[in-house]
Design brief:
The complex is a heterodimer of chains A (about 110) and B (about 120).
Chain A lengths: L2 E3 L4 E5 L4 E3 L2 E3 L5 E7 L5 E7 L5 E3 L5 E5 L4 E6 L8 E8 L6 E2 L3 E6 L1
Parallel strand pairs in A: 2-12
Antiparallel strand pairs in A: 1-4, 3-9, 5-6, 5-10, 7-8, 8-9, 10-11, 10-12
Chain B lengths: L4 E3 L2 E4 L5 E6 L6 E7 L5 E8 L14 E5 L5 E5 L8 E8 L3 H7 L2 E2 L3 E5 L1
Parallel strand pairs in B: 2-10
Antiparallel strand pairs in B: 1-3, 3-7, 4-5, 4-8, 6-7, 8-9, 8-10
């Protein structure tokens, strides 16, 4: 089935440490890929998106993601995490005329 | 408006009652989406409106759920005979164009309506 998977339900990192959140998709072709962040009590905010071209995409708040076709992955990274990055992160994919399909999310906790 | 507005922000209802959730999208956005987020779960697609086209209802979980969009703007999601498993946060999003073009613009989400069925 066409889907997106976030294998990590919960991740804890120390402030200042690097971060990588995993996302794998299952689709016959290259879908449109997105990362959204949901801070406590907030709506979802778009961090970045990938359609085609350069496989490393830059987003807001210092985040980046790399599309790897061979691994069907679109992992989100940040070199140095800040306490304000604590939130839930969702990977999403879209193709054709479908509404976006979201993963189950990864909750990030940042330790001081 | 400046953003996607949803009301009420919180709703507590008794099992078996009907509820209506409202979404006011960004002015000029032709596409409108409803998602449901249950505790500890990702976002579950419910329904999608694009302009005057017939809505994509493929995500509605049962015939107790329905939605309409009047005048291409405000949308109402109605849940009839609510059940405890309907408790969730209901999120609305809008985008400037339909699905293909909306990928370029992204979705703008509202803050959601937290529905609790007791």
């Amino acid at each position: 089935a066409q889907s997106v998977t976030q294998p990590d339900i919960h991740i804890t990192v120390s402030e200042g440490a690097s971060l990588e959140l995993r996302c794998n998709y299952s689709y016959g072709a290259t879908p449109y890929l997105f990362w959204y962040v949901q801070s406590p009590g907030q709506g979802l905010q778009l961090l970045l998106k990938y359609f085609s071209g350069d496989t490393l995409v830059q987003g807001i708040k210092g985040f980046e993601a790399e599309f790897k076709r061979s691994q069907s992955s679109f992992n989100l990274r940040k070199p140095s995490v800040h306490w304000s990055d604590a939130a839930e992160y969702f990977c999403a994919w879209g193709a054709g005329r479908r509404a976006l399909t979201f993963g189950s999310g990864t909750r990030l906790q940042v330790q001081p | 408006g400046a953003g996607v507005s949803q009301s009420p922000s919180n709703k507590v209802t008794e099992k078996g009652k009907d509820v209506e959730l409202r979404c006011d999208p960004i002015s000029g956005h032709t596409a409108l989406y409803w998602y449901r987020q249950s505790l500890g779960q990702g976002l579950e697609f419910l329904i999608y409106f694009q302009g005057n086209s017939a809505p994509d209802k493929s995500g509605l979980p049962s015939d107790r759920f329905s939605a309409e969009r009047t005048g291409g703007s405000v949308s109402t999601l109605t849940i009839q005979r609510t059940q405890q498993e309907d408790s969730a946060v209901y999120l609305c999003a809008s985008s400037p164009r339909g699905t293909g073009g909306s990928y370029n613009y992204g979705y703008t989400f509202g803050s959601g309506t937290r529905l609790t069925v007791v």
